[in-house]
Design goal:
Blueprint lengths: L1 H23 L1 E3 L11 E5 L2 E5 L5 E2 L1 E7 L6 E7 L6 H4 L15 E5 L2 E8 L4 E7 L8 E5 L7 E4 L5 E7 L1 E6 L14 E4 L10 E13 L2 E10 L5 E7 L7 E6 L5 E7 L5 E8 L5 E11 L2 E4 L8 E5 L28 E3 L7 E2 L7 E4 L14 E4 L4 E12 L4 E8 L4 E8 L2 E8 L6 E8 L3 E9 L6 E7 L6 E8 L11 E8 L6 E11 L6
Antiparallel strand pairs: 1-23, 2-3, 3-5, 4-24, 5-6, 7-8, 8-9, 9-10, 11-12, 12-13, 13-14, 15-16, 16-17, 17-18, 19-20, 20-21, 21-22, 24-27, 25-26, 26-37, 27-36, 28-33, 28-37, 29-30, 29-36, 30-31, 31-32, 33-34, 34-35
Length: about 525
């Protein structure tokens, strides 16, 4: 009897362990716990490619690659510079926060990859194309009007369309060379009220169009937001691209919405969507799809599952975010793809060759705010917790200069060095109230200092904490907790940012020895 109990006990333990191991080998939602919104995904053979929105960042429209739908690596950007205008250049007091290029559409047609997007900043629609999505080069076409949240679609009859708009959705046929609306044609109303499946009281009208064709039917995915409710997926179906379309509610769970459909080589289907999740940003979720009566049915009993029948994630490092020692082999790109500048950079005032192994940022002008500072180099923060650390040489700062490590959003915070009256101080500054307020200060008598910013996004805690170290080993908290908040004026999850800006005289410079990103929060000693 005892032996039987022991055997049963062993069996129970073994079964539990096996189940836990199986779960650990599955993908879990969110797929990417970082700001990767407005997804568009294609599969070419056994390889998936995904584009996303980074708006005012440069370069823009990141392209990511995956073999399993879960583990993604940045491989390209559609453009280095969207356009050179004051708002995108941070010139004359103008900015493109929350603007720049929005939701992109990724397509593959006849051996060519296409990425289309649009920008309220310029009022234009953009189409980028390449034969090699990972290496480029990219050809650019830009035209007016700006087609909001459009879906580029190559139909089987050789015609090319864009579906766009909000609430009332439009369809326009494009010229064969994609240079604009086809001459002699006029955009037509495709669906008069695409929000209707979301109910009679909708706050955010249907937008985020993504059109697919499967088994001879056209399926149009949109998002709407009923007042007092949550972000909602709607689906419209038609037998011809111009309609008529019939609609239904596609998913209403946890506010996970906006995206489309993707299939695996094995014939499994998923909806790729995202969720607003506080200060970390808008984070991707995959949801199983099955087909019933010619309709894609999203979720399990209408719910988004926590686990999926896909491989487990290996983490976001180094595919989406990564450490950088700022050392470069001959012929290597100046900056790895994980980096983006906040707005268009001023390339005359940063260098990785002036002092090999260091990132040098020189002030090129006097500015009045961190948010107007050019050449802030950024990476995504990520959840559930993350930290960024750096070492900075402040030997060549000028009076009035500020340099350091930021958590960037409208309600920003930063830790770094201020030079005033020939003396340097370590400071922590918060912009959470809309005004830069110094919350901590320590005198500094050495030229190299270590800085750290930690983020806690667990259950939308959204707290940032800053530290400094004089030796890179013992860390001391400085200032107060930054209550991070996702604001619509910036419309982006928080970013780690390396910066140097002048408030009095241009020409000073600092040098960053390295930047290291890590999961989790390291307690200060």
């Amino acid at each position: 009897m005892n032996k039987l109990i022991a055997v049963l006990g062993l069996t129970i333990v073994f079964t539990t362990a096996t189940r836990l191991t199986a779960l650990s080998q599955q993908a879990t939602n969110p797929i990417i716990h970082a700001d990767v919104p407005d997804l568009s995904i294609i599969r070419v053979g056994n390889t998936y490619y995904m584009s996303s929105t980074t708006m005012h960042m440069s370069p823009g429209v990141p392209i990511m690659k995956s073999k399993d739908l879960v583990n993604w690596q940045l491989v390209s950007y559609a453009y280095d510079i969207l356009d050179s205008v004051d708002a995108l250049n941070l010139d004359n007091g103008k900015t493109a926060y929350g603007s720049g290029s929005w939701a992109s559409c990724l397509r593959y047609h006849n051996g060519t990859y296409y990425v289309s997007t649009f920008a309220g900043t310029t009022g234009k629609t953009y189409i980028y194309s390449t034969k090699n999505i990972e290496k480029g080069p990219w050809k650019k076409i830009a035209f007016k009007p700006m087609m909001h949240d459009h879906s580029l679609f190559f139909d089987d009859d050789g015609k090319v369309y864009m579906i766009y708009g909000a609430g009332k959705l439009m369809i326009a046929e494009l010229a064969d060379d994609l240079s604009g609306i086809k001459p002699g044609t006029t955009p037509q109303v495709l669906i008069e009220n695409a929000s209707a499946p979301g109910g009679p009281n909708v706050g955010l009208p249907a937008e985020g169009s993504q059109l697919f064709k499967e088994n001879g039917k056209y399926y149009l995915f949109n998002i709407c937001w009923p007042r007092g409710g949550m972000r909602t997926v709607t689906i419209h179906r038609a037998s011809t691209i111009t309609g008529p379309y019939e609609g239904r509610l596609g998913l209403q769970d946890k506010g996970i919405a906006q995206g489309g459909l993707i299939s695996t080589p094995k014939g499994e289907w998923f909806a790729y969507l995202f969720r607003d999740y506080g200060a970390v940003g808008r984070i991707p979720y995959w949801v199983p799809v099955k087909w019933e009566d010619g309709w894609p049915v999203i979720g399990i009993n209408g719910k988004v599952p926590d686990t999926l029948n896909l491989p487990a994630s290996k983490g976001l490092i180094p595919g989406i975010v990564a450490s950088d020692e700022f050392t470069r082999k001959k012929g290597a790109p100046a900056l790895p793809l994980v980096w983006q500048w906040n707005h268009n950079p001023d390339n005359a005032h940063w260098s990785l060759t002036a002092h090999p192994g260091w990132l040098q940022i020189t002030t090129g002008r006097v500015d009045t705010s961190l948010l107007l500072t050019r050449n802030m180099l950024t990476q995504r923060t990520f959840g559930p917790t993350s930290a960024g650390t750096t070492a900075i040489d402040v030997s060549n700062m000028k009076d009035g200069d500020c340099a350091g490590l930021a958590l960037l959003q409208k309600k920003y915070g930063w830790v770094g060095v201020k030079m005033e009256g020939g003396k340097k101080s370590l400071v922590m500054v918060s912009g959470a109230t809309g005004t830069a307020i110094e919350l901590g200060r320590v005198s500094l008598d050495q030229q190299i200092v270590y800085l750290k910013a930690e983020c806690d996004f667990r259950e939308r805690t959204d707290k940032g904490q800053f530290y400094y170290s004089l030796d890179g080993k013992i860390w001391t908290a400085i200032g107060g907790i930054l209550k991070m908040e996702y604001t619509l004026p910036h419309f982006m999850g928080y970013r780690f940012g390396l910066f140097n800006w002048a408030t009095a005289t241009a020409g000073g410079w600092v040098e960053f020895d390295w930047f290291r990103v890590s999961e989790g929060i390291i307690p200060a000693k």
